[in-house]
Specification:
By secondary structure, this protein is an alpha/beta fold. The chain is 39% helix and 14% strand. It contains 13 helices and 13 strands.
């Protein structure tokens, strides 16, 4: 990547951290083998894998056996939702409850289960994209099979009232799945305090390598295996583990969570600086909740400017941002999350997202804001010709 480019799409993928790279390099040696093999090389790989598992557990305040390594939060979501729903269906519970703005891996998996005999209840959100805790608990009732509520929305950064529902759902013995992929480095992340039974994590959101992540399965939570073919990862994610990726994920997660408070303050300040730089631009509004905002992320609705055109022009000027119209990259359909917030298709298509992370500074934000103002003004003048 050219040195003069500015990367402002950390909510999609973070650059690999130095800690992750350092942890991975020794494990890329050809002498490392399948961690399930009994020979010397296999045992060495197994030791490295279990060290990474203990590192994740220590970072999050959970037990090593509760850490199931996956290829990312999407795979973790599929394993968790299928596993919890099908296990609870044995007891006659077939209702799945989730918010209208969950990540596509959760929404799409629930939709598939809806074609297989499950009743999927989608709880609406308000104009800021936040679900009402009482409405969520009412939808769950006393006999839902499972529930899913993310910690913070990937498009708008709006934080959800997860801690307000977890204890009540656990009393009702309803497993709750929480997508916490954006939390590392931005929000405090302690498994016991969070209270969820199943927690989804992604390496690419935390400075880890692509193809890494974890599903945290609270002790006592039973899942019916969705994937078959091996005994690895408590039989929930069978197949040969990518030991280097697991180690990189563990190192990146520890680093991000270790200085979370400092990072969150710095990220929030960078976003404030960026927003302040838009003072001369008219016709834009912040999407999502300002009160319950994820540090380091802002989505803007820009009137009379198509989000994709803004993104392309920013890219040409050396700034990597994303559109806020879809959290499934490559899709041209309007975001279900934004539509659930009351946006029309046209308004959804006029949104962009800026997300910061390690390596960004105030100069980046000043330049990005100035460039954005110039691009939007140019696009509007062209549209008025």
């Amino acid at each position: 990547m050219p040195l003069d480019r500015v990367y402002l799409d950390h909510a999609a993928m973070t650059p690999l951290s130095a800690a992750a790279r350092k942890a991975m390099l020794p494990l890329l040696d050809p002498l490392y083998a399948n961690a399930s093999s009994p020979h010397l090389e296999g045992r060495a790989a197994k030791d490295a894998l279990e060290d990474a598992r203990s590192q994740v557990a220590g970072t999050l305040g959970c037990r090593p056996r509760e850490v199931i390594f996956t290829a990312g939060a999407t795979e973790a979501a599929t394993i968790a939702l299928h596993g919890a729903a099908r296990m609870m269906a044995r007891a006659g519970r077939t209702r799945i409850v989730l918010s209208a703005v969950e990540y596509p891996s959760v929404l799409d998996t629930a939709a598939l289960l809806g074609t297989q005999g499950f009743d999927v209840v989608v709880v609406p959100v308000d104009a800021e994209g936040r679900v009402d805790a009482d409405a969520f608990l009412e939808a769950a009732g006393d006999d839902a099979a499972c529930a899913a509520l993310m910690l913070a929305n990937h498009e708008t950064g709006t934080r959800m009232p997860v801690s307000n529902v977890t204890s009540a759902l656990r009393e009702r013995r309803i497993p709750i799945i929480c997508d916490a992929a954006l939390a590392p480095g931005r929000l405090p992340l302690d498994i016991a305090e969070l209270g969820a039974d199943l927690v989804l994590l992604s390496g690419v959101k935390a400075g880890g390598p692509a193809g890494s992540g974890a599903l945290i399965v609270r002790r006592g939570t039973r899942l019916e295996p969705f994937l078959m073919g091996g005994v690895q990862e408590e039989r929930l994610r069978p197949g040969t583990e990518n030991v280097a990726a697991c180690a990189g994920f563990a190192a990146a997660l520890e680093e991000a969570c270790g200085d979370q408070a400092e990072r969150a303050t710095r990220y929030a300040g960078l976003i404030d600086h960026f927003v302040d730089g838009l003072g001369g631009l008219e016709g834009w509004t912040r999407v999502g909740s300002a009160t319950h905002a994820l540090p380091g992320l802002v989505t803007l609705e820009v009137e009379h400017a198509e989000g994709e055109a803004v993104m392309i022009n920013m890219d040409l000027e050396g700034f990597a941002i994303s559109t806020g119209s879809s959290c499934a990259l490559g899709s041209r359909d309007p975001s279900p999350g934004l539509l659930a917030m009351g946006f029309t298709k046209q308004r959804a298509a006029s949104t962009i997202r800026v997300s910061v992370g390690e390596g960004n500074d105030r100069d980046h934000m000043e330049r990005a804001a100035s460039t954005l103002c110039a691009i939007v003004s140019r696009l509007r003048s062209l549209a008025n010709r």
